[in-house]
User: What shape does this take?
Amino acid sequence: MEDEEVPPIHISAVLYPFAAAFLQAHGCTIHIDTNPLRTTVTLPPGATRTLLPSRTASERFAIALPGSVIIRQVYDPSSGHSALFIPTHKQEEAAGEQ
Assistant: This one.
């Protein structure tokens, strides 16, 4: 599966503060709309995503941020919204040791 540039990611909720801080620390821009409640995450230049095999209707991606940080996205085509999964502090430290 080929890497592709990452379009803005739409989430139908507000991010937890630690998640927003993590994403911003890795060059992402966060925009929150209040009506309807929606958070848009724009990833930094150089971020790529790879489609992962899935057995569900949702699409799953691995997103590589600059600095070798990997986050996961689950996208629901029917709603147009996503969920993001970010590494824990321990996972990020382990990636930095490699």
The chain has a mean pLDDT of 85. Helices lie at 17-25, 89-97.
